[in-house]
Amino acid sequence: MPADLEEKTDRYERMLADALDEAEIGAPAGTPLGETAAECREMAVSYLDDGRHFRETGDPVNALAAYSYGYGWLDAGVRMGLFVVPEETTLFTV
User: Fold this and answer.
1) 6-17, pLDDT tens digit by residue?
2) Which of 2, 24, 17 is CA-nearest to residue 52?
3) What confidence tens digit (pLDDT) does each residue in 25-43 have?
4) How many domains is the chain built from?
5) For residues 30 and 9, what is the distance between their CA atoms, to the nearest angstrom?
6) 67 pLDDT higher than 70
7) pLDDT for the residue 1
8) Are 5 and 60 in contact (CB under 8 A)?
9) 67 CB contacts (<8 Å, ≥6 apart)?
10) Residue 72 lies inside a defined structural domain of this protein
11) Are residues 9 and 60 in contact, defined by beta-carbon separation less than 8 angstroms?
12) Domain extent for 22
């Protein structure tokens, strides 16, 4: 049975919000890697905000897409070493 759109959108919103709470920039501010990490984080936050806007306006498909893109920015940043995450986390594909 396919996942319910509302349930999946809720899950991805929580996942992105939790990922933002866990991922810490792993390079000093002002360095090239620190700036890149800050930009990735900013994109993830923007997609979270966009997703919430889409949900408020009754557009769950674009909300889910926004949450997915935001999470992708963070997950890619973790894999590239831009972010430090707890070892026990299950939120990232590391």
Assistant:
1) 999 999 999 999
2) 17
3) 998 989 999 999 999 999 9
4) 1
5) 35
6) yes
7) 46
8) yes
9) 9, 12, 13, 15, 16, 47, 48, 51
10) yes
11) yes
12) 5-84
In a domain, 93, yes or no: no
CATH code for position 51: 1.20.1270.90
Percent of the chain with pLDDT over 90: 83
- Closest by Cα among 88, 67, 79, 63 to 16: 67
pLDDT at 94 over 80: no
What count of residues does the chain have?
94
Domain contains 73: yes
Residue 94 falls inside a structural domain:
no
Asked if residues 85 and 24 have their Cβ atoms less than 8 Å apart, the reply is yes
